[in-house]
Structure prediction request, 177 residues.
Amino acid sequence: MDVGGMPELWDMLGAPLNVTLLNLPGAFNDIPPHWRGRVVVGDICRNADLVSGYDLVFSNSVLEHVGSLARQRAFAAAVASAPSYWLQVPAPEFPLEHHCKALFWWLRPAARRRAVIRAWKRAGRTWDARQMAGTRPIGRDRLRHLLPDGHIAVERVLGVPKSYYCYRVGAGVQPAG
Prediction:
């Protein structure tokens, strides 16, 4: 199961896979007609049972968007209820903010970030404004706190953390390589 995912990621692989996508209401309004995977509409933070029965739960750049720390905890607990999981979050230390492409976004004071979000709204950049108003960055320490049984790997660019990956391989599953 891909929590928060969309078909485009899986289409890039070019191989037929049995993937179930779980996302919030409205996310699947434009599913391509060729998509053959299953789609489930729901909020994993409110219903962790949505992932029961899946052998692997995958999530790419979603945890930072679920809202409060309580919702982040609920999301992480649901993901960790699967036998195996793989979760990625962008590193807040990276100079270019992944979602809005702003330089040094998370190093700016909160008041300055709010002012930029208001300016984006006035300029019609409503997607960026909405996206960044609801994003709560997740660094390595918070990821470790949320998923204490996971292994953490760091993707680096020129020595700077770009993304954090947290994964667990369930009993009886042999990782490739």
